[in-house]
């Protein structure tokens, strides 16, 4: 359950068997149900924010997918992998597979378009703005840039 309420990015430490990558207890979690009129060809994850941010996020997004809410959290469907190379700021929560704590979330916003997804980059930037956290993501670099396995070389990004 604790992994559902903390942001995470996919890392090698998320391998099966590690505590970060473990599946939530099915008795205490639920998968958000996508309305039948939408296709989820990109897979589904969810991004949650505490309810106190819900209306502000919903009203400021230029495009909105399916949004779910319970008394404590609001959840936006995003394509699978929307946590790659970004660190979602606290107190937001990234839920792989759109599996969230089972507090009775219900669909509160059905998009007019054909996609169930909220574009993750505007959602990420807005979440950062509302929480006062600077956006942070890893830049794509080549080994000649001094980057080894996606991390900056200890001598610095400008030195090989």
**Helix/strand structural class:** alpha+beta
Strand order of the largest sheet: 5-2-4-3-7
Assembly form of the protein = single chain
List SSEs in N-to-C order: EEHEEEEEHEE
Mean pLDDT: 77
Distance between the termini: 42 Å
Radius of gyration: 17 Å
Q: Roughly what percent helix?
A: 10-25%
Residue fraction in strands: 15-25%
Question: Major sheet: size, sense and barrel closure?
Answer: 5 strands, antiparallel
What overall form do the CA principal axes indicate?
Answer: globular
Total number of β-strand segments? 9
Low-confidence stretches: 1-24, 145-160
Number of contiguous helices: 2
Secondary structure topology:
Elements: E1 29-31, E2 45-50, H1 51-60, E3 67-69, E4 73-78, E5 93-95, E6 99-101, E7 106-109, H2 120-131, E8 147-148, E9 151-152
Helix pairs in contact: 1-2
Describe this structure in words.
The chain is of the alpha+beta class and 160 residues long. It is 14% helix and 20% strand. It has two helices and nine strands. It has helices spanning 51-60, 120-131, and strands spanning 29-31, 45-50, 67-69, 73-78, 93-95, 99-101, 106-109, 147-148, 151-152. Strands 5-2-4-3-7 form a five-stranded antiparallel β-sheet. Strands 1-6 form a two-stranded antiparallel sheet. It has a two-stranded antiparallel sheet with strand order 8-9. A hairpin with a 3-residue loop joins strand 3 and strand 4 (73-78). Helix 1 (51-60) crosses helix 2. The longest helix is centred in the last third of the chain and has 12 residues, at 120-131. The chain starts with 28 loop residues before the first strand and ends in an 8-residue tail after the last strand. The model is unreliable at 1-24 and 145-160 (pLDDT under 50).
